[in-house]
């Protein structure tokens, strides 16, 4: 094939002719070159800088949580990490750029509220990230299509997911946390969090359970039992008290089953925690199912009698009919439940037993329901959670023959009327009690305290009472509360060993920085730690330097820190 050139060039030197300038002549010629300045491009007056709107960590986030205290704890952790990463948490959904919706799958109404909130967010053109048990259990639901999802064991990665959602991407993190093949309790307990109430720390001691109740959808989301080690829980309690907390709630899907997967048990954990509780501070136990608490009744009675532990236990019975309990696969009979209640009432004088009842479970007859009525009449539970049965999709109970809706409604009404027919606290009037003040009443007229039996005591709203153990004389009793008058000669006792954090303040930042070797601003990002090893980068740098320069700065900071260490 002929060459495109007319003549062949043997070597590169053949391209230089004798008439070409020498290198020395070319260098000399540069001195006569006069540079010309370019005209600067005129800046448009009306031109708007759009960079900030695309930089994650500069937006406002509104979070809504439904469901149990475990879910509330998860919500507190997610809010804390987002705030520590530069996002602004807001109580006003209308001003938020993104809605973080933390769902509950226990009952249909809770999921309906969740679904409606997603719809409202779309109508208001808000970015949406969903979390909690609903998307974990059913991520393929039509109304979740295209949405970013944070799994119940992935809450430590909320910043990553929100970052991507802000940029218009869809991310789904639904995996389980494991160590050497063993499933873990969840994310680290020392992550930043924003406590809804700075005086109360909610600690999840385990996730999942050992049961397979036929009506339960939560099992699909939380899975089998996975417990946190005792030492991690004790350290979390210790950290909480150092941040001014005066009340700790232990929570999980079944606290009674704690430790069975890691070779320990609930009493062992409780005795260790009691050692860390300051005088005047209190510990509240979460829900426990009857089968697992039966093994520890003697130790549990001793613990509930401890002065720094509320004499309160939530033990769901669900039905007083053995036939119904068998269909529910509750793994106990009604005599087991009675044994728990009778033993604790005998060994822990004044103990409060709270319970749950489901009305209209599939196959429940009038005789079955009457047994439940008789149980309530016998024990007159001061705290009773009454739930009309809702078939949850994907559960065995949803495939069973259902009790007619009007019958379920009537039974729920009848049981509610029975519950409201007695006043469990009338005999308390005239007593002198100690109560720990931690909250404000819904009507903002009183402060809310709790006595040794975790009974709600309304006291005058005086600023010096908040977070204090006070002595009161009970002068009035209602269905759900007592009213107490502070004893004049008695001084409020401060159980907190440190000043409480301000409402909305992020906890755990010091521990986060120490854990990751970070020395700098308290606004440094936990997500930056995840992305760049032990180096974190303030979100404001991104706004000032631009993304490219910020990455260079991050790299430089990383190198400097490595040299420092």
From TrEMBL:
Enzyme class: transferase
Keyword Ribosomal protein: no
This enzyme's EC code(s): 2.8.4.5
Superkingdom of this protein's organism: Eukaryota
Family matches, as CDD domains: Radical_SAM
Cofactor: [4Fe-4S] cluster
Free-text comment on the cofactor: Binds 1 or 2 [4Fe-4S] cluster. One cluster is coordinated with 3 cysteines and an exchangeable S-adenosyl-L-methionine.
Localization terms from the record: Endoplasmic reticulum membrane; Membrane
Every Radical SAM core domain range: 195-426
Keywords: 4Fe-4S, Endoplasmic reticulum, Iron, Iron-sulfur, Membrane, Metal-binding, S-adenosyl-L-methionine, Transferase, Transmembrane, Transmembrane helix, tRNA processing
GO CC, one annotated term: endoplasmic reticulum membrane
UniProt-listed InterPro entries: Elp3/MiaA/NifB-like_rSAM (IPR006638), Methylthiotransferase (IPR005839), Methylthiotransferase_CS (IPR020612), Methylthiotransferase_N (IPR013848), Methylthiotransferase_N_sf (IPR038135), MiaB-like_arc_euk (IPR006466), rSAM (IPR007197), rSAM_horseshoe (IPR023404)
MF GO annotations: 4 iron, 4 sulfur cluster binding; metal ion binding; tRNA (N(6)-L-threonylcarbamoyladenosine(37)-C(2))-methylthiotransferase activity
Residue ranges annotated for the MTTase N-terminal domain, each copy included: 59-167
Catalytic activity, as annotated: N(6)-L-threonylcarbamoyladenosine(37) in tRNA + (sulfur carrier)-SH + AH2 + 2 S-adenosyl-L-methionine = 2-methylsulfanyl-N(6)-L-threonylcarbamoyladenosine(37) in tRNA + (sulfur carrier)-H + 5'-deoxyadenosine + L-methionine + A + S-adenosyl-L-homocysteine + 2 H(+)
Pfam families, alphabetized: Radical_SAM, UPF0004
Primary subcellular site in the record, as a coarse category: endoplasmic reticulum
NCBIfam families found in the cross-reference section: MiaB-like-B, MiaB/RimO family radical SAM methylthiotransferase
Annotated function: Catalyzes the methylthiolation of N6-threonylcarbamoyladenosine (t(6)A), leading to the formation of 2-methylthio-N6-threonylcarbamoyladenosine (ms(2)t(6)A) at position 37 in tRNAs that read codons beginning with adenine.
Protein family per UniProt: Belongs to the methylthiotransferase family. CDKAL1 subfamily.
PANTHER family linked to this entry: RADICAL SAM PROTEINS (PTHR11918), THREONYLCARBAMOYLADENOSINE TRNA METHYLTHIOTRANSFERASE (PTHR11918:SF45)
Listed name of the protein: tRNA-t(6)A37 methylthiotransferase
